[in-house]
Amino acid sequence: MHFGSNPRLIEQSKLPVFVFPTELVFYADDKSSHKQVLTVYNPYEFALKFKVLSTSPKKYVVVDAEGTIKPGNCVDIVIRHADFREALIGSRDKFRLNIYEHGQKKIIGKKDIPAILIASSGEIRKTPEREFHFQERVHHSDSQAIDSFKN
């Protein structure tokens, strides 16, 4: 299914961004979780460019953080957690996926994807689900990292 371009949404930078999963959970004790894949879909009739940003770029390796998605296609973006120090257990970060119309520099859509590092895959059963949902509140210590999204 293709969606045509809606000039009003593009002009307002509110083009819906389709990405799965909507959050990333890394487990320090489970090496299979250290590499996660974000799939970005382009249901539109025009090509899109994308760029992935992070609030903590030193903690992650993003393979192909920029690229193009052909109309009606998708791309997989591999994200590896690279820092599993005990002090980082429970830390929350965010990835921002910016979408551009191919050949343009103006952001026409964006999506934030929260990420968390948990000590053990068994902990998820003990922690309420709401604990892992993105919260709009920005802590003072995160304000510098969030400022990097503005560039």
UniProtKB/TrEMBL annotation:
Cell compartment(s), UniProt: Membrane
Domain of life, source organism: Eukaryota
Domain annotation MSP: ranges: 16-151
Pfam family, one: Motile_Sperm
Family matches, as Gene3D superfamilies: Immunoglobulins (2.60.40.10)
Membrane-related topology note: Multi-pass membrane protein
Record carries keyword Chloroplast: no
Record's keyword terms, sorted: Membrane, Transmembrane, Transmembrane helix
Protein name, per record: Motile sperm domain-containing protein 1-like
Organism per entry: Saccoglossus kowalevskii
